[in-house]
């Protein structure tokens, strides 16, 4: 038997983009449903992304600090042992707690949670293949696609999530690999490479380009490289992976210099493929409604998140822009506001990026080295804050931070930029002493005048 129900808005995908959109829609009084096929809300971020990676980063940092750093701080500890099973349990607890929390919010605000795979059969109709085996369908005046992304495959390397893994497998390894090769020195490679290095793996990151951090500011990337190398991670830059083969429980990875040269074989117990992510639209039935995607598979939208079918909007990783949870969330709210009120807004100029290594790296703002902008650096042992502001107006154009708590500190810069602040505005704002945020004030001072403490 098949049933059909009707809603004002149906959201496909329960990740940070989708669940936030659904809650916002319900809060604005619209009858809302959210379709999610994973069996758990929160999407990539909560289940196999931000949350598990940050849980492992935090706890592996505590372990590493305990084994490497406590003695010099005057704390003697003995018999410190890693219990990976329990570390994974702590991670899983964070995931289930947060995913259930979202389910609770759906109940609180009256969002109907439809568990199953959604597929378009018409511009206002979606067939649902339920996780319980039931087939149902829903109709809605407005639909939001928020189906997210998946790891980009490496041609010729078959992922088994045990020996050759994506981030998903790397978040659930059953033992610490002796040797790990990471393909791609971007955000995932650096974060998860750090996790397993701290837990005892010999980690080698192979990066095709001559710098790490997937396009972050060059000076910051160089500094991060030096710091991570000092910690013991190995890097092979300007190097490309040709192929890899499994034998006797090991993986041999063939690499060669990007510009040609002598081949080399890297032996590994686990290979992490982290060369980027791609939009996910599998079996979504886009062809049934004529929704266009671009050459990278991203769903095409206009400035109001409308696809080629105006009543179907699209947000998050599956369309243009940074693949970040907070970006997807902002779009979720804005897309719903367009539907409900006719206007919404996301300021793409100030979406912060954070790499949760230790130290953390954070940045926001456009970062062209324009002739009319100037950059000064406030350097200290643990990294630096770099602020770029307009030479004429002093308006802040971008901020790059490398240091402990950079991810928290960047919010001050984002807020300042959102309100169009100048570097002088930050420099003249009183910051508590001693705090890390004083570094931002000093950088601001350095940008418009001279730093006091440097
Ligand atoms: P997703 O979170 O991918 O959610 C889409 C959901 O849609 C999925 O749950 C999927 O099951 C569901 N779905 C897809 N198709 C259908 C269908 N047809 N029917 C029903 N359901 C469907 N970002 C940060 O900002 N900070 C971080 O620290 C961070 N860390 C990360 C760490 C890792 C290891 C990874 C992989 C990613 C990380 N990200 C981080 C990126 C972040 O996870 C994504 O940007 C974010 O999840 C995108 O949200 P979304 O809602 O667009 O899509
Ligand atoms: P990425 O785009 O950050 O980095 C990929 C890296 O792989 C680049 O440096 C690229 O030059 C390199 N590369 C590509 N092909 C290669 C090849 N054949 N051989 C060697 N190197 C190659 O992608 P990543 O790390 O997979 O992460 C995907 C996305 O997930 C991120 O861009 C980000 O949007 C999101 N993410 C965000 C996090 C955060 O906000 N802290 C954490 C983790 C992921």
From TrEMBL:
One of its GO terms (molecular function) is dihydrolipoyl dehydrogenase (NADH) activity. One of its GO terms (biological process) is 2-oxoglutarate metabolic process. FAD binds at residues 54, 118, 147-149, 317, 323-326. It is an enzyme of class 1 (oxidoreductase). Coiled coil: none annotated. The active site is at residue 433. Its cofactor is FAD. NAD(+) binds at residues 184-191, 207, 276. Residues 365-444 form the Pyridine nucleotide-disulphide oxidoreductase dimerisation domain. The keyword Oxidoreductase applies. Disulfide bonds join 45-50. Residues 7-332 form the FAD/NAD(P)-binding domain. It catalyses: N(6)-[(R)-dihydrolipoyl]-L-lysyl-[protein] + NAD(+) = N(6)-[(R)-lipoyl]-L-lysyl-[protein] + NADH + H(+). It comes from the Eukaryota. Keywords: Disulfide bond, FAD, Flavoprotein, NAD, Nucleotide-binding, Oxidoreductase, Redox-active center. Binds 1 FAD per subunit. One of its GO terms (cellular component) is mitochondrion. This is Dihydrolipoyl dehydrogenase. It comes from Acaulospora morrowiae.
């Amino acid at each position: 038997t098949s049933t059909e129900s009707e809603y004002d808005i149906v959201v496909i995908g329960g990740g940070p983009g989708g669940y936030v959109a659904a809650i916002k829609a319900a809060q604005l009084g619209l009858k809302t449903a959210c379709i999610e096929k994973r069996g758990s809300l929160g999407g990539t971020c909560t289940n196999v992304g931000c949350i598990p990676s940050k849980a492992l980063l935090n706890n592996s940092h505590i372990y590493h600090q305990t084994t490497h750093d406590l003695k010099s701080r005057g704390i003697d500890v003995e018999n410190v042992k890693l219990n990976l099973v329990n570390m994974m349990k702590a991670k899983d607890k964070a995931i289930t707690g947060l995913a259930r929390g979202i389910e609770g919010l759906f109940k609180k605000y009256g969002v109907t949670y439809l568990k199953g795979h959604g597929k378009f059969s018409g511009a206002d109709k979606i067939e649902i293949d339920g996780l319980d085996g039931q087939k149902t369908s829903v109709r809605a005046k407005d639909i939001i696609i928020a189906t997210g992304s998946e790891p980009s495959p490496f041609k010729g390397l078959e992922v088994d999530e045990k020996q050759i893994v994506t981030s998903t497998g790397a978040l659930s390894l059953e033992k610490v690999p002796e040797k790990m090769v990471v393909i791609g020195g971007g955000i995932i490679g650096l974060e998860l490479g750090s996790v397993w290095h701290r837990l005892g793996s010999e980690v080698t990151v192979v990066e095709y380009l001559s710098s790490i951090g997937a396009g972050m500011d060059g000076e910051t990337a160089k500094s991060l490289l030096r710091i991570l190398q000092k910690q013991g991670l190995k890097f092979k830059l300007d190097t490309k992976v040709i192929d890899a083969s499994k034998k006797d429980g090991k993986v041999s990875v063939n690499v060669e210099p990007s510009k040609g040269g002598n081949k080399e074989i890297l032996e590994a117990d686990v290979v992490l493929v982290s060369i980027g992510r791609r939009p996910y639209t599998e079996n979504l039935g886009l062809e049934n409604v004529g929704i266009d995607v671009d050459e990278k598979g991203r769903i095409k939208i206009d400035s109001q998140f409308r696809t080629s079918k105006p009543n179907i909007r699209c947000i998050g990783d599956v369309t243009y822009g940074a693949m970040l949870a907070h970006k997807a969330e902002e779009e979720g709210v804005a897309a719903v506001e367009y539907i409900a009120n006719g206007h919404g807004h996301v300021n793409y100029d100030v979406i912060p990026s954070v790499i949760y290594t230790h130290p953390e790296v954070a940045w926001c703002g456009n970062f062209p080295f324009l002739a009319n902008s100037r950059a000064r650096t406030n350097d200290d042992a643990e990294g630096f804050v770099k602020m770029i502001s307009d030479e004429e107006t002093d308006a802040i154009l971008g901020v790059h931070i490398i240091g402990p708590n950079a991810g928290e500190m960047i919010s001050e810069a984002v807020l300042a930029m959102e309100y169009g602040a100048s570097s002088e505005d930050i420099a003249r704002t009183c910051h508590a002493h001693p705090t890390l945020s004083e570094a931002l004030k000093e950088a601001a001072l350095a940008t418009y005048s001279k730093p006091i403490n440097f």
